[in-house]
Amino acid sequence: MIKKTFIIAVALALVTVFTVSAAGGGQAAGGGADFPSRPMTIYLPWAAGGSSDMKVRTIAELGPKYFGQPMVVVNRDGAGGTIGAAEFTRRDPDGYNICMLTSGIFATQPFMREVHYEMDDFEFIIGLSYETIIIIVHKDAPWNTLQELIADGRRGRRFLYGGAGIGSMGHLSLAAFFKLADLDAEAVAFAGGGPTVTSLMGRHIDVAAVHPAEFFPFLQSGEVKMLGIFSPERDTAPDFRNVPTMKEQGYDLNFAVSKYFVVPRGTPQHIQRRLHEGFSQILSDESFVRSVEAMRLVIIPYEGQEVRRRLIEEARFMSGVLRDIGLID
Predict the structure, then answer these.
(1) What is the pTM assigned to this prediction?
(2) For a FRET experiment, which of 109, 141, 203, 320 has its CA 20 to 30 Å from that of 71?
């Protein structure tokens, strides 16, 4: 019932023109013409240490420069980001409450579990980034290529693997791969990409699928090996350009993640415009550009309407992928 309800909601959204609520023209509490006039809070539905956390904290450091007010980052992890996303819908729509979400919040999670939010609970402000997912193993693992890992699995080895929570793109990418490769593997849930990498480094799991920023320090120190990338094309960054795509290796799988800022439904239009303006300036700031380049991220500052449109399309596509690989009915 949950899955069917969400699919219907997505279908309705496909014929709905993006608009802000009728309340958008009014003045929400604390949302006067002098907005912002006090500190702002960015909520993040994942644990500290992952690529989302690193990016948001970099943005928050630039908040005073472009908004004239400090920004506080609050982490609320659990259930692949769905707990924090649901809680955020109850925040005041005054512009002082902002949340960073990922494509999986709408494109995969509602098909995997019960969620307590809908797309219409949010106003979409701006797109932030497009992040690839890479399969990594510990430097001491006996596999140097994906083919060697597959061969070991077909000899009877059972794998433990991790991503940023059950239903996250990291989890689903490996679940799809192991399913298609017909290998014996078990998922281990983590609160985010950071804890996933920590577990891999401790040899508690065999394989991880995470964003480049989450394991890059370990790549630089030679502590991890990369076996494949879940994107249509190879990454162009020097450190990753030699990592073959999963499609090249016989598995046509794309689980790259888009991230974006939202505010609660009903946030006034003039505040949404001010937020878009400020975040656009931050994303173009020279120091931010240098930071994201160091994190191996690609910035895509889509307009809010475009973010929403792409999420609707991705949800429709992912529902078919999940059904095809037997992860949902």
Answers:
(1) 0.75
(2) 109
Q: How far apart are CA 324 and CA 27, in angstroms?
A: 47
Domain that holds residue 212: 134-229
The chain-wide mean pLDDT, for the chain, equals 87
The pLDDT tens digits of the residues spanning 183-208 come to: 999 999 887 888 999 999 999 999 99
Please give the structure tokens belonging to residue 128.
């932030």
Residue 276: phi and psi, rounded to 5, are -60, -45
d(CA 61, CA 73): 10
On the question of a cis peptide bond just before residue 64, with omega within 30 degrees of 0, the verdict is: no
pLDDT on residue 33: 66
- Collapsing DSSP to helix, strand or coil, 246 comes out as coil
Strand order of the β-sheet with 97-102 is 71-75, 40-44, 97-102, 257-264, 122-131, 298-299
CA dihedral angle for residue 169, residue 175, residue 118, residue 271, rounded to 10 degrees: 0
Tell whether 194 is covered by a domain: yes
Count the alpha carbons within 13 Å of 139 in the hemisphere toward its beta carbon.
Answer: 9
Confidence (pLDDT) at 2: 41
Residue 26 lies in a domain: yes
Q: What is the mean pLDDT of residues 128-153?
A: 96
Percentage of residues of the chain with pLDDT beyond 90: 61
Specify the length of the chain in residues. 329
Angle of helix 304-324 versus helix 2-14 axis, rounded to 10: 140
- CATH label of the domain that carries residue 116: 3.40.190.150
Residue (of 212, 102, 226, 219) closest to 165 by Cα position: 102
Q: How many CB atoms lie within 10 A of CB 151?
A: 12
Residue 10: per-residue pLDDT: 42
Residues 13 and 125 in one domain: yes
Q: What is the pLDDT of residues 66-102, one digit of tens each?
A: 999 999 999 998 888 899 999 999 999 999 999 999 9
* Residue 19 shares a structural domain with residue 74: yes
The residue written with tokens 């490769």 in the block is 181
Q: What are the tokens at 48? A: 């500290």
